[in-house]
Fold each of these.
Amino acid sequence: MAKEKWYKDGLKFACTQCGNCCSGDPGYVWATKDEIRKISEFLGRDDGWLAKKHLRRVGLRYSLTEKKDGDCIFLTRDGESVGCSIYPVRPMQCRTWPFWTENLKSKSAWDTLSETLCPGMNQGNKHDFVQIELTRKQRTW
Ligand code: SF4
């Protein structure tokens, strides 16, 4: 019998829009060719692709770029307020945060992230187990 997941009773999460998950240490925001095409269309380009300042190749994959200060290239800041300039077409990686397999591997992994990176975790509305698992396993949108 499969072992019960530690989050079987659901988890609280409500984004506070602090922007921490879109900034900080260097990392990758993976985008598929289909997602790149959607972002390109959203930006009004007619070539279905993105400029070098927005997209880089990493091996066989593509990642959005970052600004020098570590912010995602599409993160916007206006005083205290942060936003995403491609929010309606943001990649799956951004859509499914924080319900990633690595974040859910243990309660301590989840709580550590909640305390060190994402103040929205363990706050706000409860997401039930089915919702969490659908999000965790989602691969296309
Ligand atoms: S770190 Fe968490 S609370 Fe902050 S913007 Fe990202 S998801 Fe929202």
Amino acid sequence: MNAPNKYNILSSDDPKNIVLFYPHIPKKAVDYVNDTLHSRWIGQGPKVELFEQKFYQRFTAPNISLTVGSGTDALHLSYILAGLKEGDEVIAPVFTCMATNIPLLYIGAKIKFADIQLNTLNIDPKHVAQLVNENTKAIVCVHYGGLPCDMIELQSIAEKWNIPIIEDAAHAIGAKYQDKSIGSISDFTTFSFQGIKHITTGDGGMIALKDNKLMDKAKRIRWFGIDRSMRQLGLWENDISEIGYKYQMTDISAAMGLAAMEEIEDTLALRKQLFNEYEKRLKNIPGVQFLGAGYTDREHAAWLCTIVAEKRSELQNKLLENKIESKQVHYRNDRYSIFGGRQNNLTNMDLIEDKYLVLPMHTKIIIEQVEKVCSVIKSGW
Ligand SMILES: Cc1ncc(COP(=O)(O)O)c(C=O)c1O
């Protein structure tokens, strides 16, 4: 028997181990990267633009797509483009990857953490409505695991106060809300192509922008504040009038992104099949709540499969004894001292923080392995 180890990590070399995540590398990615390595452009070049077009056509139209170096870059650049400044109040989810919130600290914004909904772990619009005031300059939401947030409710708050919504859709490539693709709805939506996402470019990200007029500025800020197209035409006059940084994607990454776009429908279908299988097998087990299923007004992108259960660490040990990895993946952000310490107004987060658990889901998992995970859970812990 495989004793629980300190880090809850299993080796993926042993095929009997059911690991939590595994990168999805499309068949053509190696060829496309190889071609790129033998071309003139390995940095930001034509493949970056092509990847933006393909992503735009499939996920973000009519909003424009712009690639960046990571999902974190996408968030930071969106916050800058949204005009956030030092001292501005921003309502943001407490339960997310710290990447959602750390760029707000860089800007010097004052984060007001909003609580979660117990049945989705998404931001709770009721709490957002209590927190919003005349100093609030933006609302950030995260579609946890791939399930879209209550966008209508969030939009009505944002419209009332005339502030933008920034959707962190790092988990939500392919998700839909009321038949609209995530990426096509708000002023800003950000995506991540980090190692274990639906699409990976090693690291990478995308911004979807509603306002066409912001595009030129976005492109300049993505590259030091310089207009690259003018520079390539030889017309660059050497002035930089706004502060930019180096947020751009490379053609090596975009080559992986292009290969991933060719099989994205299969990737999404497979993940949804696994998610549905988990739901079917877990929904009637006493003591287990399966999150994110049963919605008719929105479509889950099936990035994470999350359950809520009592005695979580005992369950994790039981899973590990059966060669199955499980984790929390994200933690409440107010546990990190950079965010100012634990808040006392997040009752749902308090209730659930010791109970949620993420189960293995990726494109290397087969249905029999899902069955195994579910039958181990069913046998009790
Ligand atoms: C919700 C969320 N937002 C943002 C990010 C950051 O994306 P990246 O790792 O591509 O910078 C992640 C994780 O990767 C995430 O899970």
Amino acid sequence: MPKAELHLHLDGCLRPNTAIELAQRHGIDAPHTWHDMFDTLVAAAHPGSQAALLKSFELPLALMQWEDSLARIATELVEDKAADRVRYMEVKWAPAFHRAQGLSLDEVIGIVASATAHAAERCGVEVRLCVVAIRAHDVATNVEVARAAVRHRANGVTGFDLAGHEASHPDPTVHAEAFDVARAGGLGITLHTGELPDDGALVWRALQVRPQRIAHGASAAADPKLLDELIARNITLDLCPTSNVQAGTVATFAEHPLPQLVRAGVPVTINTDDTTISDVTLSEEWLACVDELGLTLPELWACNLHALRAAFVDQPTQARLLDEFHAWARPLPELH
Ligand SMILES: [Zn+2]
């Protein structure tokens, strides 16, 4: 299947061998063998918590403070996704986390934009960038990040996100000014929420920043009124079931509410979140949704098409990709 993936983090997708080489080059204390590096990068499935999952990003972020690291990891992510037949992807990352060795926000965004654009052209895929602000950062920093993101619109930045530890920073409206700057600058608005096992209250609160999409949001399934609200406002949930098991959103993959959300009519896309940290390709994630959650092929395909419709991308590119996906599906009556 040609695929679209909207919820994908640059710092969650390092190849283990690349991490080993970059650690050696930059003098970072890290495992030396593929197996040890793999074990370090991949987050444990159990016992999951968002805090434990976020710890998995510490080594990747330590390695991603230099131009060569950022460019290589961005290039390889596009190559790896193209090999999994992802035709459209949005790459998320938090530029403010990559300044420890003196890079500026504009430099960090420029490096990732340039590397992904070159790799996208070479691989024949479409890539857009979603700049992430961090819940724990102060308001001024996130406004600065939003301004930098807007400055790079011509370089493929089309989205603005907020992520980070939700339990300790539950109120995204603190960062309303950053969302306003991004929205006024023409960026699509999304934010991470609903990753903690709750009754949907955090998702309700996230709606106050008027997102077009929500990264995760699985906990919304507990509240039928909230589902009606998501449908009425056409807000898409970019779900990541494997990652949600690691974060403790659900106890097991089989308990993930993805099919329930799809069948309730909530706009849903299916994503990996972090191909390395969750040790799952998009093909594997989709297969698991069919095999373990009972999603039908037409439901899966509808989520895929919806990802293109909800993408933060210009209309001509969206129309071209929809044509391509429809052409692929035309000989397959089981998808209709
Ligand atoms: Zn995420």
Amino acid sequence: MTHPCLSCGACCATFRVAFHWAEAQPDNPDGPPAELVVPLRRHELAMRGTESAPTRCVALAGTVGVDGHCSIYALRPSPCRALVPAWEDGQPSPQCDKARVAHGLEPLTPDTWRTIAAPG
Ligand code: SF4
Ligand code: SF4
């Protein structure tokens, strides 16, 4: 089995993704491209598509629960990096669970990670 986030994307179609403007390009070359973000509040940007309902980040590729995945993974902003999939590091993740359930997917379990092949 591959990493579950590569066939999910539920969180990217559930939550507003807001962050400080300095995280995005051009100020931060390692951040989301400027055309993929929108102004939200003073000092804050949001990933385009997450600023209002229905929520779907513009950088989300594929179909949620099938092949949904982040198309700018290496450039994703801090809220996306902070949302850890449930049990990947042995801890629950209420946001991951909430997003998956909202899209009709079963929450991840510790068993999910036992079936993932080790890299290499
Ligand atoms: S909801 Fe959980 S499993 Fe799905 S993409 Fe987000 S972190 Fe990964
Ligand atoms: S930037 Fe990537 S990880 Fe973050 S919400 Fe958008 S698609 Fe998901």
